[in-house]
Specification:
The chain is α/β, with parallel strands linked by helices and 447 residues long. It has 11 helices and 19 strands. Helix 1 packs parallel to helix 7, helix 1 runs parallel beside helix 11 and helix 4 packs across helix 11. It binds flavin-adenine dinucleotide.
Length: 447
Amino acid sequence: MRVAVIGAGIVGVTTAYELAADGHEVTVFERRGSVAAETSFANAGVIAPGYVTPWAAPGMPGKVLRMLFERHAAVRLHASLDPALLAWLWRWWRACRPETWQANRTRMQRLAVFSRSRLHALMHTLQLEFEHETGYLVLLRSPADLAAARPGLKLLTELGGRFHLVDAPRCREIEPGLNPDTTLHAGIHLPDDEVGNCRQFAHLLRTEAQKLGVRWCFHTQVQRLVPGRTPQVVHRYMPPAESTQLLIEPASTSNGGPSTEPAPLEPIGEDFDAVVVCAAMGAPELLRPLGLKLPLRAVHGYSITAPLRPDDLPSERAPRAALMDERYKVAISRIGQRIRVSGSAELGGTLEKYDTAALDTLYKVLNDWFPGAGRMSQVQRWKGARPMLPDGPPVLGASGIEGVWLNLGHGSSGWALSCGSAFALAQAMAGREAPISLEGLGIARLR
Ligand SMILES: Cc1cc2nc3c(=O)[nH]c(=O)nc-3n(C[C@H](O)[C@H](O)[C@H](O)COP(=O)(O)OP(=O)(O)OC[C@H]3O[C@@H](n4cnc5c(N)ncnc54)[C@H](O)[C@@H]3O)c2cc1C
């Protein structure tokens, strides 16, 4: 089949690769100048299937309300309560019911476990190196933090992965760089969980996909889809000057590879046999005119990334792999020779406006645990929009509109879910049974 993929974030890149590997003729349309230029750009990079779980969970509404009044809150509300946000919150609140949460958690974790095995297969067969490290340590600052984490331990046991509840001295053996002056009560160590550079992986897989014949159209905005037996993609080339206005970090997003041919500025239509929408926050605008209203919200988050001090390498002051400060819900990741600190869940607001209080929390957590590890004069700040559906799982499969397929809405776990989602979707498009059950991941649940 001739397949168009819209969006070249981590979900679009993995989808394009899997479809090409399955023998399809694939074209990717991306409005930015390169792959992974939006939410897949500087995320925490954590792959921890046991922690892939819906934000819509029992007890969450109360927790969120309390957090709104805390200085170092994990959740922030930056919006007037517009009707669309209220409708989204209503659906989110309903999905917090124990039985709904339980079902969605099972679906997400099944996909996450499969996704990790697919990531490993790609990593080994294609020999991809993407600043990958093994190990995830959840830091519990106090007995109260441990008590709050206990129900999660039960869930980890159910999932069957390896994990150990460890005391503070053991945490410091696992991560010797942890600041001895910050109080630590205990930790949960998941030795098989991982961290890796999502953006770098996307670039490497893009090259592999290109070898399989994938055509990449960068600086190309899809304006409209015309469904049918041969769906049409109406797109327009945006000169770099126009599309860089959208860029988050203009200096570092281009990879210099062969990308775009000079193209006409007028919109042009191209016919395909199928279209896959992997456009994350760009998807509702494309699907609404076709009668599909997606309840997708941006939940913004931040990261700060700094190079490690060269005089320290190999650094005893820096993290070895990934950590999570459970009290502040802030991740600390080793990304090659850099340290990255990520967190915050901001509803509303815009990508351009940075909340200094949210950034302060990231600096606080960095200074609490790894003071002096990074060269802060070279810190890069980033803000991304998690494409979040109210109940948690992504939407994967046929859209119900002729010729149009969906792979989007991966929220806070798009990197951890991408390889599995892409493989499962390619199987479904070929009419083969998916390797895992896709029950509850379809669009029907959102109508
Ligand atoms: C602070 C933070 C930390 C995170 N940490 C983790 C983590 O540790 N682990 C994890 O698994 N996930 C994490 N995530 C979530 C993860 O980053 C996202 O789920 C993932 O990047 C989503 O990928 P995507 O490809 O769906 O979206 P994107 O990367 O946003 O890609 C969508 C692409 O579609 C393009 N597009 C949209 N509309 C159009 C159009 N009309 N025409 C052409 N192109 C279009 C966009 O330009 C964009 O490039 C984190 C997110 C944030 C914000």
